[in-house]
Amino acid sequence: MAYLINNKCIDCDMCVPECPNHAISVVDHRYIIDPEKCTECVGFYEQPTCVNVCPIRCIKKDPSHQETREQLIAKFKALNS
């Protein structure tokens, strides 16, 4: 399951440099997470770093992009091969 940044985001930019897959970007003055690149940090860390560094906890799981751990591992391998 990918993550999403909700409208409570204060544009602090803490999450962007933490994403190992470069899945976070700014579009139309909003931070977004590309579900095609988000692996929930599987393959890199035990927990999603964007969630851990967000000072206001505005990064949540995106229910429209559910994936199993196996799918996340496969995505990690495809993005990093």
Provide an overview of this structure.
Strand 2 and strand 3 form a beta hairpin. The strands form two sheets. Strands 1-4 form a two-stranded antiparallel ribbon. It has two helices and four strands; from the N terminus they run βββαβα. By secondary structure, the chain is of the alpha+beta class. The mean pLDDT is 95. It has helices at 49-53, 69-79, and strands spanning 3-5, 24-27, 30-33, 59-61. The two termini are 21 Å apart. The relative contact order is 0.28.
Summarize the structure.
With 81 residues, this protein is of the alpha+beta class.
Q: Helix segment count? A: 2
The outline comes out as: globular
Mean pLDDT: 95
Strand content: 15-25%
Q: How are strands sequenced across the largest beta sheet? A: 1-4
Instruction: Characterize the main sheet.
Output: 2 strands, antiparallel
Gyration radius from CA atoms, angstroms: 12 Å
Indicate the structural class.
alpha+beta
Distance between the termini: 21 Å
Summarize the amount of helix as a percent range. Answer: 10-25%
> What is the total tally of β strands?
4
* Low-pLDDT ranges: none
SSE pattern: EEEHEH
Record keyword descriptors for this entry:
two-stranded antiparallel ribbon, alpha+beta, 17% strand, 81 residues
